[in-house]
């Protein structure tokens, strides 16, 4: 049996052979996740750094966390000894916002057996499960050649621009309602949202630190989409930099709503060009 969306801490604890990656990160302190990993992590886990391993350097025009170079990402997977038949489990501090990025990237290279740890490290600790400070040396892991095919389900900024009039898909913004509305913007140089985008803060997918049930998530997404005329496979998820948007992709998959895509550049790319239109306020919808 393979797991393709979520696993519980109890399930992971029973399968020490699974490959585990610690994706903890803080946007305001990029090395905080690595320090947290060194202070204690799930035994056997390797650290995946958002900026270094799960993104490529920003140019100032492609958003804050551009997708990694496909060749570099496949090399990193091989360097970490990941095999195509491995069950991979990814986690972060708890919400799954950063872990979902690696989940999405692995799916983009065709790795199906990858799941996010529901509740993350916070729940692992709450259950008093083992924590290690041993840092597995990559040199002790048999390297592989990971021969995946890079086939990400994405749209680029040109497609989003054209969609302002074509309306061929619905953009779903995973940021908090305040940033979507153009208030309290502290990360990107401009506040607001892409005109026509709906708002679904990724935190809405959670209840008490874990993902809501598939039934609840499906009902919520279908309610949001009910008056739009768009189906799940016509949704393009975005956020600030293409990271937390993956949380909405994951939530939709948990709900059985497949086929949504990602706009990797997201708001940080969109607002980087002052010629692109910006909308503010709570409209058209937020759930």
Automatic annotation (TrEMBL):
Ranges for domain Rhodanese: 14-133, 165-279
Name of this protein: Sulfurtransferase
Record-linked SMART domains: RHOD
Highest taxon, organism lineage: Bacteria
Pfam family, one: Rhodanese
Keyword tags: Repeat, Transferase
Entry-linked CDD domains: TST_Repeat_1, TST_Repeat_2
One function term, GO molecular function aspect: thiosulfate-cyanide sulfurtransferase activity
PROSITE patterns named in the record: RHODANESE_3 (PS50206)
């Amino acid at each position: 049996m393979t797991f393709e969306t979520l696993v519980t801490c109890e399930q992971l604890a029973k399968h020490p052979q699974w490959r585990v990656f610690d994706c903890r990160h803080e946007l305001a302190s990029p090395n905080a996740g690595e320090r947290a990993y060194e202070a204690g992590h799930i035994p056997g886990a390797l650290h995946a750094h958002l900026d270094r391993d799960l993104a490529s350097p920003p140019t100032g025009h492609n958003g804050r966390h551009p997708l990694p170079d496909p060749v570099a990402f496949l090399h990193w997977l091989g360097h970490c000894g990941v095999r195509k038949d491995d069950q991979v489990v990814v986690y972060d501090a708890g919400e799954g916002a950063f872990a979902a990025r690696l989940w999405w990237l692995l799916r983009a290279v065709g790795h199906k057996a990858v799941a996010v740890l529901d509740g993350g490290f916070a729940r692992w600790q709450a259950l008093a499960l083992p924590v290690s400070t041993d840092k597995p040396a990559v040199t002790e892991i048999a390297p592989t050649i990971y021969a995946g095919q890079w086939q990400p389900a994405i749209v680029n900024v040109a497609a989003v621009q054209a969609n302002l009039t074509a309306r061929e898909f619905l953009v779903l913004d995973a940021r908090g309602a305040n940033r979507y509305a153009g208030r309290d913007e502290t990360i990107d140089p401009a506040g607001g949202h892409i005109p026509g985008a709906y708002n679904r803060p990724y935190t809405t997918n959670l209840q008490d630190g874990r993902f809501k049930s598939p039934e609840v998530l499906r009902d919520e997404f279908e309610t949001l989409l009910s008056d739009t005329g768009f189906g799940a496979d016509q949704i393009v998820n975005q956020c600030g930099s293409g990271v937390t948007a993956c949380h909405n992709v994951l939530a939709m998959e948990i709900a059985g709503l497949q086929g949504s895509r990602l706009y990797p550049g997201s708001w940080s790319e969109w607002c980087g060009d002052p010629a692109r239109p910006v909308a503010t306020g709570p409209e058209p919808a937020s759930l």
